[in-house]
Amino acid sequence: MTDYIRPLQQLSRSDEPSFGGKSANLGELLAADIPVPPGFAISTEAFHAFVHDAGLEDRISGALAGVSPGDVDAIGRASHAI
């Protein structure tokens, strides 16, 4: 479970795929001694584990079925359903 959470000061640009660009960049700023408020990041793997453990995969897939990336209204409806 601790692999899901990491302090910002332990992140670098190489962690972007797992922890997102903002968190990775904050880690880079901290490494450069630029003041950043203390914090932590939660991995994308944690999100996927939550979705799986909560049994939400089918609900999400169903809500997104047939939704086109450019159809903002359909995306909004799917988001609300999820």
What structural keywords apply?
mainly alpha, 5 helices, 82 residues
Describe this structure in words.
- The protein has 82 residues and is mainly alpha-helical.
- Helices cover 52% and strands 7% of the residues.
- The chain has five helices and two strands, in the order E-H-H-E-H-H-H.
- The protein has helices spanning 16-19, 21-31, 44-53, 57-64, 72-81; strands at 5-7, 40-42.
- The chain has a two-stranded antiparallel ribbon.
- Helix 4 packs antiparallel against helix 5.
- It is elongated and about 45 Å long.
- The mean pLDDT is 94.
Topology record:
Blueprint: E1 5-7, H1 16-19, H2 21-31, E2 40-42, H3 44-53, H4 57-64, H5 72-81
Antiparallel strand pairs: 1-2
Helix pairs in contact: 4-5
Short description:
By secondary structure, this protein is mainly alpha-helical. It is 52% helix and 7% strand. Strands 1-2 form a two-stranded antiparallel sheet.
β-sheet strand percentage: 5-15%
How do the helices and strands follow one another from N- to C-terminus?
EHHEHHH
The count of DSSP E runs of length 2 or more, i.e. the number of strands, is 2
Strand order of the largest sheet: 1-2
Secondary-structure class: mainly alpha
User: Low-confidence segments, ≥5 residues, pLDDT <50?
Assistant: none
Distance between the termini: 25 Å
Cα-atom radius of gyration: 17 Å
Give the overall shape: elongated
Number of helices: 5
* Largest sheet report: 2 strands, antiparallel
